[in-house]
Amino acid sequence: MSIGHTLLGLLESGPRHGYDLKRAFDEKFGQDRPLHYGQVYSTMSRLLKNGLVVVDGIEAGGGPERKRYAITEAGITDVAQWLATPEKPEPYLQSTLYTKVVLALLTGRGAAEILDTQRAEHLRLMRELTRRKRDGDLADQLICDHALFHLEADLRWLELTAARLDALAEEIRR
Amino acid sequence: MTSAPLLSATGLDKAYGPTPALAGADFALRAGEVVAVMGPSGSGKSTLLHCLAGIVRPDAGTITYDGRELTALSDGARSALRRTDFGFVFQFGQLVPELTCVENVALPLRLNGEKRKAAEARAVEWLARLEVDDLAGKRPGEISGGQGQRVAVARALVTAPRVIFADEPTGALDSLNGERVMRLLTDASRDTGAAVVLVTHEARVAAYSDREVVVRDGSVRDTEWAA
Amino acid sequence: MSLGTWARDLTLGARFAVTGGRSGLLRTLLTATGVGFGVALLLLAASFPNMLFQREVREAVRAVDGSEQVTSPRPDSFLHLGRPTVYRDQAISGLLLQPEGDAPPVPPGASSFPETGGMLVSPALGELLDSPEGALLKKRLPYEVVGTIGPAGLIGPAELRYVAHVDFLNADNLDGRGTRYGWSVPEEPMNAFLILLVVVACVVLLLPVLVFVATAVRFGGEQRDRRLAALRLIGADTAMTRRIAAGESLASALLGLLVGLGLFAAARQFAGTFTIWDVNAYPADVVPMTGLAVLVLAVVPVASVVVTLFALRGVVIEPLGVVRTSTPRRRRLWWRLLLLAAGTAFLVPLIGDVQISQTSIDSLSVAAGTTLVLVGLTTLLPWLVEAGVKRLRGGPVAWQLAVRRLQLSSGTAARAVSGIVVAATGAIALQMLFQAMETQFTQYSGEDTSRAQIALGFDAGNADDARGKIDRVRRTEGVSGVIGVVESHVWRPGPLKQGEEFSPMVALRVGDCASLGEFATLPSCTDGDVFVFLAHGKQGNPDDAFVTKAVRPGAMVALSDPHPHPSSPKGAKGAPAQWRVPADARTVDSRPDPTGMYEYGVLATPKALAGAVLDDPRAQVMVRLDPAVPDAADLVRNTADAIDPTAWVRTLKDTERDAAFSSVRTGILVGSTLTMLLVAASLLVATLEQLRDRKRLLSSLVAFGTRRSTLSWSVLWQTAVPIVLGLVLAVAGGLGLGVVLLKMGGQQVQDWWGFLPVVGIGLGLIATVTLLSMPVLWRLMRADGLRTE
């Protein structure tokens, strides 16, 4: 999962201080793995270097966590590209997908599009597996089926999540 | 995207009462390709299939099949087209319970005016191709669901249609039978060059297709054609 | 199994019947309506004997008591004369009264005795007289309406009756002298043939009602089975589901009883407004016989339970659905034939056994035999449908769909149609019986309405008076021709011979040649001719020797009785006038006169008898009516009454009887049509139910391009095949039964094609059921059925 894109995405809704970013990240995506300040600092400096964010202001007292960052046009494009790029289908990618769906909702983009993109990617792989299964022996069939069922489970989970988040977003908007 | 589509639809609207089932749906199908129509339940998948097959007339929009505008055809002409050019597989409840399997498969041929003997001979060939020829003399009530779907597939293919419409053909089957039906259906359609419109909500079933489109809130997201 | 369990399950079932959601309630209402109609019909039928009995009671109560002989006038005595008449094909009963003292009893239904020239009328007659349609009748009854006859003096509320106070009754024209009303007349013997007809009609019309009641409790059975399956899922056992099903039917049947009682109560209010078979009754007289009513009220609920349990026999209700034993036992033929044979065994020995004049027949055997034959035919139907359909193959798709469907479940179709078999068979047999009766009665009377349509007879003071009356009839508007003779008698003059109690006597008719030619075949005739005409013993007439004893050409005859009975008021007039029969009088053969009678005696033209004084002359007139003049018959009847209110009037084309016949015919047709309609209703319900059950299938058939017409034809065939088979059975059975019943009375089949209207009705039913199921079929054929919710 890309911490840089996630932090960029969080900045899309408005400039934030470094510690704000960490708190928001931990709250939404951190769960059992909170970010270190160092991670935030190094990520933000890399983004600064690439011109994806700018420093919007520094509070008295200094320190990297006291800087206020804002996203640039290039940054927004980068987030969009990232969201639109399907993840490579593999088992247990839910955390990345989840992050993408939530970010999409937070930034006012549709979760459905992410889902459709991802489904297309999943199906591409599933089609390949299906083809292999048809031409292969029993062992191939069993292996392919295993992968197919997992991929299907991913998609179903994703679909369910998207449906739920859609409902949630509607509630927030209300 | 070299060849012109065999069946295409633009701007389809269809409402059942106050609920819109389709709202500006577009679709295109090339000859011989298998397209999965996916989407959450209630998204309008089946309605899209019914419109494409000329069973239901859309409120707005045009459907073109093989250079003919389907929406402009009379009910009788559309029925005739369905008999000659289209085949159908549904989830369940499509076999006539009183007729034997072979009579069920021969039914579309007989509706086209073919003689009973000839029709049933061809029906038996198709039953064999779908590995259910031993059921020819049985009634639908006496066979399993998976067998029934294979008989239904045989019936859909017996007229050598150019398009097969399959609406959740594995919806009532377990995984193994579902896989088998899908394999037989796609193999047979590829052999005969029939295109398939496959409505399903299962990714594993959709994986038998060449590409998929997604119906969402009555409009179609065509991942390939839209690009 | 404790009573408590039964009660619990039945109650549970009853609760389902009324709370089973919209479709459950619909089913209950449908069944209740069906059962209700059946119950109402049965109750009406149970009231019929009472109704007829009450009619007789009413008739007896209002009749003058003839059991008491009153020989001389008393203050409370009166002379009476029954004076029925016919007005525009309607029979009117009338009673003329002439009190001999000042205390005559008030006639039943009247509040007081009318003054001379006054008349009491029934409400129906009063209405007729007040309306423009009654204008002609008003002229015939020249009495002043002074009051109304109440129910006590009427047979039915629609009866046309009058009671008039007159002053012209005398010993010559009265029916009798009475002092009070009401006596028990012996039951008028009913013609054996009529009884046969009634017995068969009862059986024929009531059996389908029972069949219908049995069908009605099965309405919506498939839906109910699914509900029962759900009960199995939550733990009910098979026996329990059956009891619950029985409870459900019981509730519908009980509701049906209530509906039936309601319908009956409503229907009896209309008893007075309909006149069937001349029967028209007061609502109070329409009371079912207690025993029969109790039977109906008990049999219907019990039958509903039995039929339900019987219907569930071949059904296994599993928790996850209903399994019909897929290959039911093959239907056996033998016991069905046995029923038929038993019925025939009852009927065949009666062949030739029923005499037309007999008034009692072995109605039990006839009813039992007819019932068995009808039931046997009905049970034969499922076998016939199964056997008939089994052999059907091939054909177009619509035909194949229908035939296959019938092959799988021929029982359902056969059950629905069985009512048709009973109704049609019975109707055909009745039709044949009825035709024979109708023909026979008209032949019996031998009346030739092409020669004359009304016969009249008037007493006259002398020959001129009689001729005057004939002329008056001739001058009446609407009369195109008159056969008129002055009728009297001639006697052999001289003393009585050994062994004779009176002088030999024959009738003498004097009239013009044309009129005389109506009584005998005349080689030629001019005024002045005389003929002796002989009937050769035909129609039970005395043989020709009897005539020649009294009269011979050239012989002298007496024009009045030479040896009158001592008590006769005409006795002792001195020596009777004599007349010589001309020696050249020809002897000729009698021919039937327009009333169908062979007369005999002397025919004379006026010149031959000029100046002779005839004894007790009567004017006999037969009238040919001008069909172009409306009401010609009533104009003639009016003239007759104007000439003499006690004149003898007879309509040759016996319209009263014809009306009764045609009402019987209509009754049979209406009855069997109604029954067939009931059958059609249940057939329609079954078809619709089946169509609804296959909503998905129909939609998918449409999807792959099945034409609407293909499916419509399939519905038609599916209805038509069992009905046609049923009709074939009914025609064969009906003709057979009809022939046997006819042979019983020694009758011949008049018309082998009498079954055509019945077949026509049956074919109409096929069309009706098919047409009525079309809207539902077409609605179901829309693609909505494909949508999965």
UniProtKB/TrEMBL annotation, chain A:
The keyword DNA-binding applies. InterPro entries: Tscrpt_reg_PadR_N (IPR005149), WH-like_DNA-bd_sf (IPR036388), WH_DNA-bd_sf (IPR036390). Pfam families: PadR. The keyword DNA-binding applies. Residues 7-77 form the Transcription regulator PadR N-terminal domain. Keywords: DNA-binding. Coiled coil: none annotated. GO terms for molecular function: DNA binding. Signal peptide: none annotated. This is DNA-binding PadR family transcriptional regulator.
TrEMBL record, chain B:
It comes from the Bacteria. Residues 7-226 form the ABC transporter domain. GO terms for cellular component: plasma membrane. The keyword Membrane does not apply. Pfam families: ABC_tran (PF00005). Keywords: ATP-binding, Nucleotide-binding, Transport. One of its GO terms (molecular function) is ATP hydrolysis activity. Transmembrane segments: none annotated. PANTHER family: ABC TRANSPORTER RELATED (PTHR24220:SF685), IMPORT ATP-BINDING PROTEIN (PTHR24220). This is Putative ABC transport system ATP-binding protein. It comes from Streptomyces nymphaeiformis.
Automatic annotation (TrEMBL), chain C:
It comes from the Bacteria. InterPro entries: ABC3_permease_C. It holds the Pfam family FtsX. It is found in: Cell membrane. Keywords: Cell membrane, Membrane, Transmembrane, Transmembrane helix. Residues 201-303, 671-782 form the ABC3 transporter permease C-terminal domain. Residues 560-580 are annotated as: Disordered. The chain crosses the membrane at residues 25-48, 192-217, 250-271, 291-312, 333-352, 364-385, 413-434, 667-688, 715-742, 754-778. The keyword Coiled coil does not apply. It is a multi-pass membrane protein. The keyword Transmembrane applies. GO terms for cellular component: plasma membrane. This is ABC3 transporter permease C-terminal domain-containing protein.
